[in-house]
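Practice set, problem 2.
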Amino acid sequence: MDDVIAETTRTYPALVKREFGIEASYEAIADFDLSSSFGLTRAQLAHLFEVVHTKEVLMGFSPVTGVREALSAWQVAGYPIAVVTGRPPETRELSLTWLKMAGIPFDSFEICDKYGRHDPAQGPFITLDEIKTRTYTCAVEDSLSMAAFLSGTMKVPTFLFDRPWNRHTEGHPACTRCASWKEIARKATPLLQP
């Protein structure tokens, strides 16, 4: 969901400036580890994620350009839209509210513990083992490790949404790097033919 459907990380430099007085830029986020990219301590990173997951911040994200149109076209063509996110389980209701408020079409929504960070006390989530039991026509991902899992382990055609933190490598050979939803929609068309 984040950085594929919602422009999440683009808001982080302003939050880092507001919370810690540290100058940061979106394009400088060269690593999925934000403590490294922003020069934050572990305590500061934990605080940043507390702030990021507040209602004020979560509800303020903008949709990624072109996402509504692409997902709407796929849904109209009969393809179910499954939103799977690595957000903390306690953000479920806010995330669902944001999707509806932003007019993002979807048929199912699940929180997945992609990185082994979730605690059952936070609320329901699924595991990567459970994801492996699912069937997807294609996937769109911004995380290199998840894109490799989807395209390599699961053999799902995967579009890697180009972001600063995933540019240091080409990703999994089975992934297709794309710069926009318009490009994703165009390249996915052959997969979505009856």
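Problem 2, part (b): a different protein.
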Amino acid sequence: FNCFLENIIETIDEDVNSRTVELLLRSGIQDGGEWNMFCNIVKKYGLVPKYVMPETFSSSESDSMNNILDLKATKCAHELREMKHSGKSMNEIYKAKHEMVKEAYSILCMFLGEPPKKFDFEYKDKDKKFKCDYNMTPKDFYDKYVGVNLDDYAVIINCPTEDKPFNKIYNIKYMQNMV
């Protein structure tokens, strides 16, 4: 959601019928995401064991949630573009975007539950001894128990076209990481 709105702001001076803006609005909010977005969310916020935040109906049947978020995102995109065209400053636009992201977070919490800020991690070690780490944050848990350096991994794709020769690195515009 945040990334989508950032892309809308980045293209705010383009005509609404430009191919780029049209693509952004048509793509909207999608279920899933990109590897880099996942990595950056994990690095910033961490992870929790499944029992701490179990599946909900909406996490496995996400169509309704995604439709609501997509409608909200499209409405927000229109509002941000309208603010720009009515002479609002970029500072005001970013303030509005911040509030929009908070609203999207509230919607996600209604569907999925609020992510825990702290939790107790209970487990048995290899010797079958009970252990507990109290008041862990999701970031603490990731750092201590997962500890994989996600920057050691890369996405590799093959999409040869005449304008993109082999053996070079390319970035796909508007597929940036999170903001």
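Answer key, part (b): The longest strand covers residues 130-136. The beta strands are 119-124, 130-136.
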